[in-house]
Every structure is written in C-alpha cells, then in structure tokens.
C-alpha cells in the first residue's frame, strides 16, 4: 500500500482531499494497487526509466467501466503526469502545477483532457 493512501468506508483510496473527476476513480485497487504503485512497481520503473526523480504519488485512474487504463499521478511537488498502461506512454502536464486546477479542467464538459497542455516523455 502506498504512503499516499487511506481507508475510506473499508476501501483503500488515494489520499489527496480532492474528489476524482467524472469517470475517474481513486480506489487504489482499481488503479492497479501495489503492482502498479508499490515500491519497485511498474510506475516506478516507467518513471525512473525516463530519468524522472522524486516521490511518486498516485492520484486517480480512469474508471474500469471506461475500458481505459489511464492514470494521473504526481512526481515530487507539482509535476503531474498521465500514464497509459495500454501503450506505455507517459505524458507530462505542462501548464497546471496543482491538482485542483487539473481536476477542474478534466471535470469541465467543455474542456476535458484535450484542454490540457501535455507532452510525451
């Protein structure tokens, strides 16, 4: 279990104080659990393999019913990324450096993911 989780109503969830955007979840197990987020897990390999250093903090994953395997996480403080577990791509979010502004954009039906300034790393 990650240092950034807590138990809510008997479910392990990411602990960031902000509700997930629509169609996203913060259930640690629905987000891949320790296999993805634990020490020595897949995300640590992906992040370090790209030369990115810092503590990895999971935030959200696309809800299982969407059929997507996209995850939003933070490295260090204010460096946000998406990871697509289907094709192995990692995208850095360039302009937003706080989780609340990212969630607001993802939740806005007129903006969403395409409105974020992202680049592949």
Short key terms for the protein model shown above:
121 residues; alpha+beta; 6-stranded antiparallel β-sheet; two-stranded antiparallel sheet
Strand fraction: 25-35%
Q: What distance separates the N and C termini?
A: 26 Å
Number of helices: 3
Oligomer: single chain
Overall number of structural domains:
1
In round numbers, the mean pLDDT is 93
- Shape type: globular
Number of strands: 8
Biggest sheet, in brief? 6 strands, antiparallel
Write up what this structure looks like:
This protein has 121 residues and is an alpha+beta fold. The protein has one domain. Helices cover 18% and strands 31% of the residues. The chain has 3 helices and 8 strands, in the order βββααββββαβ. It has helices at 33-37, 42-49, 99-107, and strands spanning 5-8, 11-14, 24-25, 56-62, 70-75, 79-84, 89-93, 118-120. The strands form 2 sheets. Strands 3-4-5-6-7-8 form a 6-stranded antiparallel sheet, covered by helices on one side. Strands 1-2 form a two-stranded antiparallel ribbon. It is globular. The model has no long low-confidence stretch (mean pLDDT 93).
Write the layout of secondary structure elements.
Elements: E1 5-8, E2 11-14, E3 24-25, H1 33-37, H2 42-49, E4 56-62, E5 70-75, E6 79-84, E7 89-93, H3 99-107, E8 118-120
Antiparallel strand pairs: 1-2, 3-4, 4-5, 5-6, 6-7, 7-8
């Amino acid at each position: 279990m990650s240092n950034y989780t807590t138990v809510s109503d008997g479910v392990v969830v990411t602990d960031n104080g902000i509700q997930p955007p629509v169609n996203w979840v913060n259930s640690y197990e629905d987000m891949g659990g320790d296999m993805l987020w634990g020490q020595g897990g897949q995300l640590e390999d992906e992040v370090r393999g790209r030369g990115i250093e810092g503590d990895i903090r999971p935030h959200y994953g696309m809800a299982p019913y969407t059929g997507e395997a996209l995850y939003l996480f933070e490295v260090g403080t204010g460096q946000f990324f998406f990871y697509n577990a289907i094709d192995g791509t990692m995208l850095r979010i360039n302009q937003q450096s706080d989780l609340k502004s990212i969630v607001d954009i993802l939740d806005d039906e007129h903006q969403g993911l395409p409105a974020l300034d992202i680049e592949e790393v």
